[in-house]
Design brief:
The protein is an alpha/beta fold. The chain has 6 helices and 9 strands.
Length: about 220
């Protein structure tokens, strides 16, 4: 029964995320465009909460940032507007093209990398601040939301976060109550990260967890 419910949530979330083809919207004082086939943060309140928290949690000493799974690039662009040198990664070429358009529209530069998590980032490159909003539904037909029955994609993302987090750096991770909080925390620990602060918010039909982490 629970699996059926989660599959239903996945179908609804996919419908919400792609409700419109190309659209434009304003968020956090800036203009954004979302292309067809790219997840639209104007339709998902959790995505907007993540972007806002990424700005609030930015370490004051940070000079570089990495966003894993950048989508349309909104969070990466906002960090670049704060003066950080930002690398934005996604496995989707249309998403990266969309991120490039939003960077140009807002007058900043992003280093864009087509990659499965951190696989294509130079081996020794690390960042002061890493942000990630990985897939979190255990059952979904859409790769943008599918984490796997044991949240394998979440763990892969967390391993990439740990690999790329500089000494004294901080990471912001978002997860959902639909994932199962206990397993998310288990994966955070397995990846060698420690939660230093959690912001919990209710967004529509789910609780989201915004975990600020550091390396163990």
């Amino acid at each position: 029964m629970k699996g059926l419910l989660l599959r239903s949530v996945g179908a609804i979330r996919r419908k919400w995320a792609y409700l419109r083809a190309r659209s434009e919207f304003t968020c956090l004082g800036h203009q954004w465009v979302v292309r067809e086939g790219v997840v639209n943060p104007s339709l998902i309140s959790a995505s907007r909460q993540f972007a806002q928290k990424a700005l609030q949690a930015m370490p004051p000493q940070a000079k570089s940032a990495l966003e894993l799974g950048t989508g349309c690039g909104m969070t990466a662009v906002l960090l670049a507007l704060r003066g950080l040198k930002v690398t934005a990664v996604d496995i989707s070429l249309p998403a990266l093209e969309n991120a490039a358009e939003n960077a140009q529209r807002n007058g900043v530069r992003l280093d864009l990398i087509l990659s499965d998590w951190d696989a294509k980032i130079p081996t020794t490159q690390q960042f002061d601040y890493v942000v990630a909003n990985p897939p979190y539904l255990r059952h979904s037909s859409d790769p943008a939301f599918t984490a796997g029955t044991q949240l394998e994609q979440v763990l892969a993302c967390l391993n990439a976060v740990r690999n790329r987090l500089a000494a004294e750096g901080r990471a912001l991770l978002m997860s959902s109550s639909w994932s199962g909080r206990d397993l998310v925390l288990q994966h955070i620990a397995t990846a060698g990260l420690r939660v230093v602060n959690t912001d919990r918010k209710f967004c529509g039909n789910e609780w989201i967890y915004l975990d600020l982490c550091e390396a163990e």
